Amino acid sequence: MYELKNDSCKCNYKNIYLDTRNATANSTRTEFAFDSMPMIKLNGIKNVLKVKSVSLTGEGAFTGHTWVVKMRNVKYNTEMYFNSDRGFAPTISQFKDDSVNAFNTGSVLEIEPQDINQIVLEVVGYDSTATQHGLLKNTNQNIDMWLSICIEEYME
Prior knowledge:
Blueprint: E1 2-6, E2 11-19, E3 24-25, E4 31-34, E5 40-42, E6 46-58, E7 65-72, E8 91-97, E9 102-104, E10 108-111, E11 114-116, E12 119-126, E13 132-133, E14 136-137, E15 141-154
Antiparallel strand pairs: 1-2, 2-15, 3-4, 4-12, 5-11, 6-10, 6-15, 7-8, 7-12, 8-9, 12-13, 14-15
């Protein structure tokens, strides 16, 4: 993680890089808890979380799947975000991976001032038959995901 400051607009940029290999995963690899993160302090009047990039790697091909990434353990502005799946965890990215590119339709999420020391990601993939699965290919090949997040912290 690193932080950039821009004194002209009173905005701080905090970049977070999450690698699922550094998280504790459940058995179906749909939930990833990042427990050993440094403390991230957000004190801005307005804090905006944006997903900058997503990358997948692993054994075998995992193209043709649609992936949905949700974030837990982060307080967000519930008046500015509505989720049609009735889930409480906000969707921060939804993408489809083909043989060349990942098409990301990432969200922008306004989050509350807070101290973040753990992030939990929920990752669900859908194959061509709409079957849900985690970051697994078949039942024994793990898929790893890298997620680059930027938080814009507006001080005024």
